[in-house]
């Protein structure tokens, strides 16, 4: 776990992530400027750090209703604005980028931040960037596998010799600068199916698992499959962290939390995913057996602990500001995370 | 409410003729309902390549988004080689798995002979169910002999189209009310 800068004796890590979506608040129909959105994301990272949150990450989506296409630039600003919170991507679409440039960027962020940078590399669930950046969608799988593999090789070796289909070969190539300690944590983003998780397992890389909704038991199967594949691939599952991710929102009561968050999720998904989030499914999210952490602080604490017990995850990443949630509500949530949720998680998951 | 008629092939005129009758029936009986007719013969729709429906361009994007925006869809289809035409199947392939959730879908089918009667039952309805449609169970089956020079000459077919339109509207309105009542119950 040290390789991935995780200390299990500290207990479950709590992270915040943003897709960098740029959506109107459905209650007012008003959308802040892209500039303000980016500044608020940087501000959010500072507040997260003050609250004691362990990790903060920013994603890239290259289409309408998003503002952090240049997510590594935003992360560099966050690196400068913060002192101890770990920072990363959620996700970096490695398929449509040059792994050498991605590594240079994130190694630089790691140096700026004093060893706090991580990459979560994914394949993109929104694929508009393939056309924009000049890639063929038919190479979706292979682009990811080849480029992710190169990214891992660069991380492990200061001098790289490499040959592939989608990029010019590398001959005794030195990829610089090197991050602190010579390498940095690189995770594979997994969309939820056991087949996808098993690829991460065979490869021997940490897994960040997306969980939009559904029962904990469903995602446990995926995590079990990941650890099984790690073993089959000759790796020790004890050495590889798992991060789970999903919707998060707390308010005084469950009903209030559902009421406040639902319009943001529903309207936001309509614009970014092509279809809303059914109310019926959202209502089921309140169930203690659901992965959706929406409710009163006490209920959400119990859910996070139940999920931790079932998953054995090392990090939970919360998505609480999707779909134009007003900043004061986000601040209120962060305050509750800092004063109520984090102390409870630490109490029940840290050693001693 | 918005109803979209989808005429599912690029070949021939019978399905389009029947769809014209259907659209006229909606316009006459329900002037407040917004109706669109998409005849695939008029559009250059590409084959599904796996991207999300709104990421297509041109006609493909227009057709997919128009269907996604409908409250009810009336599909008109001929029978080709004992199945639905590839043009129609491609429309389903362009859309997400749950694309027809909360939509009422009804069917009108034209065929060369009565031997094709069960093809819609056995091949089209399973697709609609898989995509979560509320299907109007009774469909209008129209044979070659019911047409004469782009007109329907069998009054029984006219009556059936009237009933299909009425059932589609009644079910769409009813499901919308049921859904509203249920969503209000959740209290958020």
Automatic annotation (TrEMBL), chain A:
Residues 13-310 form the Luciferase-like domain. One of its GO terms (cellular component) is cytosol. SUPFAM superfamilies: Bacterial luciferase-like. GO terms for molecular function: monooxygenase activity; oxidoreductase activity, acting on paired donors, with incorporation or reduction of molecular oxygen. InterPro entries: Bact_Lucif_Oxidored, Luciferase-like_dom, Luciferase-like_sf. Keywords: Monooxygenase, Oxidoreductase. Pfam families: Bac_luciferase (PF00296). PANTHER family: BLR5498 PROTEIN (PTHR30137:SF8), LUCIFERASE-LIKE MONOOXYGENASE (PTHR30137). This is LLM class flavin-dependent oxidoreductase.
Automatic annotation (TrEMBL), chain B:
Residues 1-143 form the NADPH-dependent FMN reductase-like domain. The keyword Flavoprotein applies. One of its GO terms (molecular function) is oxidoreductase activity. Keywords: Flavoprotein, FMN, Oxidoreductase. Gene3D superfamilies: 3.40.50.360. The keyword Transferase does not apply. SUPFAM superfamilies: Flavoproteins. This is NAD(P)H-dependent oxidoreductase. It comes from Perspicuibacillus lycopersici.
């Amino acid at each position: 776990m040290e390789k991935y800068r995780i200390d299990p004796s500290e207990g479950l890590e709590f992270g915040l992530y943003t897709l960098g979506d740029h959506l109107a608040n459905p209650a007012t129909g008003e959308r802040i400027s892209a500039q303000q959105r980016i500044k608020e994301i940087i501000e959010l990272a500072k507040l997260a750090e003050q609250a004691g949150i362990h990790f903060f990450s920013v994603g890239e989506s290259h289409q309408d209703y998003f503002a952090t296409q240049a997510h590594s630039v935003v992360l560099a600003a966050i690196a400068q604005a913060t002192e101890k919170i770990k920072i990363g991507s959620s996700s970096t679409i490695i398929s449509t980028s040059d792994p050498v440039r991605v590594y240079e960027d994130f190694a630089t962020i790691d140096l700026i931040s004093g060893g706090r940078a991580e990459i979560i590399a994914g394949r993109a669930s929104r694929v508009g960037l393939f056309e924009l950046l000049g890639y063929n969608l038919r190479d979706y799988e292979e682009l990811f596998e080849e480029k992710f593999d190169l990214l891992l090789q660069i991380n492990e070796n200061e001098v790289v010799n490499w040959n592939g289909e989608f990029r010019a070969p590398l001959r005794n190539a030195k990829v610089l600068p090197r991050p602190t300690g010579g390498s940095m944590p690189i995770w594979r983003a997994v969309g939820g199916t056991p087949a996808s998780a098993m690829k991460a397992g065979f490869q021997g890389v940490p897994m960040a698992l997306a969980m939009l909704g559904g029962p904990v038991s469903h995602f446990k199967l995926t995590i079990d499959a990941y650890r099984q594949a790690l073993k089959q691939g000759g790796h020790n599952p004890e050495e590889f962290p798992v991060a789970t991710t999903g919707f998060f929102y707390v308010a005084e009561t469950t009903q209030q939390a559902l009421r406040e968050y639902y319009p943001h999720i529903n309207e936001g998904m309509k614009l970014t995913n092509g279809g809303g989030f059914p109310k019926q499914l959202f209502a089921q999210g309140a169930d203690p057996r659901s992965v959706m952490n929406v409710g009163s602080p006490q209920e959400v604490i119990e859910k996070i602990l139940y999920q931790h017990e079932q998953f054995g995850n090392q990090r939970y990443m919360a998505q609480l500001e999707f779909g134009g949630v007003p900043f004061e509500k986000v601040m209120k949530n962060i305050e509750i995370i800092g004063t109520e949720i984090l102390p409870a998680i630490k109490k029940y998951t840290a050693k001693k | 409410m918005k109803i979209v008629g989808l005429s599912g092939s690029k070949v021939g005129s019978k399905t389009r003729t029947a769809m014209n009758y259907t659209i006229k029936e909606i316009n006459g009986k329900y002037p407040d309902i917004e109706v669109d007719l998409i005849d695939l013969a008029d559009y250059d729709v590409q084959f599904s390549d796996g991207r999300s429906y709104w990421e297509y361009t041109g006609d493909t994007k227009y057709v997919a988004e128009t269907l996604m925006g409908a409250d009810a869809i009336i599909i008109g289809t001929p029978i080709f080689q004992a199945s639905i035409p590839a043009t129609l199947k491609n429309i389903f392939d362009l859309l997400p798995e749950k694309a027809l959730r909360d939509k009422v879908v009804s069917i009108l089918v034209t065929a060369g002979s009565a031997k094709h009667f069960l093809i819609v039952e056995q091949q089209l309805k399973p697709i609609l169910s898989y995509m979560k449609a509320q299907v109007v169970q009774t469909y209008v089956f129209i044979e070659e002999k019911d047409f004469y020079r782009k007109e329907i000459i069998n009054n029984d077919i006219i009556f059936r189209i009237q009933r299909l339109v009425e059932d589609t509207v009644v079910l769409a309105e009813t499901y919308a009310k049921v859904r509203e009542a249920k969503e209000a119950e959740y209290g958020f």
